[in-house]
Amino acid sequence: MITKTLSLYKNAYSGLSSSTWWLSFVMLVNRSGTMVLPFMTIYLTSPSMGYSIGQAGFVMALWGLGAVTGAFLGGKLTDRIGFYPVQLITLLGGGVLFMFLGHMKTYPLICLFTYLLSLVNEAFRPANSTAIITYAKEENRTRSYALNRLAINLGWAVGSAIGGLLAAINYELLFWVDGATNIVAALLLSYFLHPSKQVRPAKKETVADPSHSAYRDKVYLFFIVLVILFAACFFQLFTNLNAYYKIELHFNERFIGLIGAINGIMISIIEMVLIFKLEGRRSNIFYISRGVCLVGVAYFMLNIFHINHVMALLMMVVMTMGEILALPFMNTFWTSRSAHHNRGQYAGLYTIAWSIAQTGGPFLAAQLAEHAGFKVLWWVLGATSFATALGFLWLKKYMEKG
């Protein structure tokens, strides 16, 4: 049994290019400093800062607005100057801006630097997505994305756990560590993945719908709408859900950090093996719709059950399983519709979808929580997740007819 399990893990990780591994290592270092975003709402509503949940929600909306702008510019620049310089510039710029934001105390400056930081930070994502495709072998793109997500989430687990400890000491430490890991990641990228050391793999493009523009691909645009709805629900995991744990359930920062760490640890252990077993057996949308459903179930659990420490951890397990099923296959779906000449555009639009969700999701949810209560919020998020899952199933039937 142990031998079979070890063999399964070995097979799940074999066949990936060395550049894919180095890129994932860079992401691991970068995301090990992911501390500011999950604690931003708690930080702003803490006694030392004194802002309301509504004001904190507005700041998170600005983060999302900056992300939309950054994703658009990042996609354009990636197609124009290449994914390497865009990644390098945004990692360095983001590192510096994290440190600046930690020194901002007045509300207007917090809003301004949050927007600027998000713009620079999120411009990195389309370039990074394009790099993954370039370095990956065509037959294991989903696993290449899963490895990158493993690095991100393992880093998230480390960042959440350490972030909880640092937040209990001084919230400003979060900004310094987040900024430092950005800069270290940029240095590693420059050393291990400099273009002079890379040979772009020659591969024949196999595109389901080689549309000239992502903005004229009707199937892809409907997919993007569904991604926005899902992501708006999913992003509560890092914002208002943590505020709920702190304000309503009175969990301390250490335990809130532990809950976030469980998410990253599960993804690190389960995702690659599960993707290896599932990839190619069913359509991408089949797995996406099931994952979105599980996210809805997780939100319903917050109202159906009495949420103590054990139930909070169980809810995170269900939420994480939904994420594991949905996100890797979402990445595979958009890459299957892109070609080399417009890959940055497709990646940019996909990133914009998540950024729009970051803009509207936490802000609207914060207002709903403030005026109607958290229980209403969890019912709305659960129902929206189920409706979105049905939308994905409709898209699958539409594509099969077409």
UniProtKB/TrEMBL annotation:
CDD domains named among the record's database cross-references: MFS_MdtH_MDR_like
Keyword Transit peptide: no
Keywords: Cell membrane, Membrane, Transmembrane, Transmembrane helix, Transport
Principal location: membrane
Spans through the membrane: 21-44, 56-74, 81-101, 107-124, 145-167, 173-193, 219-238, 258-278, 285-305, 311-334, 346-364, 376-395
Topology versus the membrane: Multi-pass membrane protein
Database matches in Pfam families: MFS_1
A GO molecular-function descriptor: transmembrane transporter activity
A GO term from the CC aspect: plasma membrane
Subcellular location: Cell membrane
Ranges of residues in domain Major facilitator superfamily (MFS) profile: 1-400
UniProt cross-references to PANTHER family, sorted A to Z: MULTIDRUG RESISTANCE PROTEIN MDTH, RESISTANCE PROTEIN MDTM, PUTATIVE-RELATED-RELATED
Protein name: MFS transporter
Taxonomic lineage from the root: Bacteria, Pseudomonadati, Bacteroidota, Chitinophagia, Chitinophagales
